[in-house]
Design brief:
Length: 291
């Protein structure tokens, strides 16, 4: 039986956080993974629910897909991860890029998160750049794509690449690079690693915000389309030009609404901080008094 190089893909869009999660599987063996699942979180009340992750699990059951891993593209700053819930329901392992260690070391002191290891051991697997693994019979490759954060990775699964926040749809551009550990120059180089792939390679985004003039959300494009039309990195844009543009643009951006809770949870592999003496778990908000 010939081995397919094209995975089946089902996208799930969470409009409150503009996040796209994916169920990806080998159509022959029905082995699959979940990429960037969302935990629904109401920051006004502190209540978390699991309807987004349940939708993925229901689809997996409908398609007879066995979920073996949850793949995080990075420590997200705009939504809480649903990885622990998926793991609880399926036994799936949770993986992320090995540079999660750098992110933990940056943010552990910010939140005085003394329980955070700093070595990434909260996750089941830390992927190295260039590492290969299998989903069923489909070969997968990990591509370290830092710039948005130090730990960003993209997952090349057969003929499809899940790019995380490295870039967006061609009409929207690229991710910000002003978070601690971010680097616009590094982001440019990471994007060009992706754009060096064959033009027909399918690319799947982690977010979409509907660029001005576009009526519908979208999250799938190709390397060829990004090369030709990406408003920030189309052919002809130099590294220095990109860094100048990205730095100026980032200076105008507000912090994501769920930045502080997201980082605290996601650097712990989606787990909440430890309960305090009263049995309640708390998310911290560091306060800086203006002078």
């Amino acid at each position: 039986m010939p081995v397919s190089n094209s995975p089946e893909i089902r996208a799930f869009f969470d409009e409150p956080t503009n996040t796209v999660s994916y169920l990806v599987w080998d159509p022959t063996t029905r082995d699959g993974v979940v990429i960037d699942p969302v935990l629904n979180f109401d920051h006004r009340s502190g209540k978390a629910t699991v309807e987004s992750s349940d939708a993925i699990l229901a689809e997996a059951k409908k398609r007879s897909v066995t979920i073996g891993m949850v793949l995080e593209t990075h420590v997200h700053a705009d939504h809480l991860s649903g990885a622990p819930y998926i793991k609880l329901k399926t036994g799936a392992k949770v993986g992320i890029g090995e540079h999660i260690r750098d992110v933990q070391r940056i943010f552990r002191p910010v939140f005085n998160a003394t329980d955070v290891s700093g070595d990434g051991s909260e996750f089941d697997h830390l992927f190295k750049d260039g590492e290969h693994f299998k989903i069923g019979r489909i070969d997968c490759e990990v591509i370290h794509t830092p710039g948005h954060t130090p730990a960003c990775v993209s997952y090349k699964i057969g003929d499809a690449v899940f790019v995380g926040d490295t870039m967006f749809m061609p009409d929207f551009g690229t991710a910000r690079a002003d978070f601690p550990g971010g680097d616009a120059r590094m982001l440019y180089r990471s994007i060009h690693r992706i754009l060096s792939l064959p033009p027909k390679t399918r690319l799947f985004m982690c977010h979409d915000y509907k660029a001005p003039g576009r009526e519908k959300y979208a999250w799938e494009t190709t390397v060829g389309e990004e090369r030709a039309r990406n408003v920030h990195v189309h052919e002809g844009i130099t590294e220095d030009e990109f860094v100048k543009m990205r730095t100026a643009r980032d200076a105008t951006l507000a912090a994501p609404l769920l930045l502080l809770p997201s980082i605290q949870v996601n650097m712990r592999a989606g787990k909440l901080p430890p309960a305090e003496a009263n049995g309640v778990r708390y998310l911290k908000v560091p306060v800086e008094l203006a002078s």
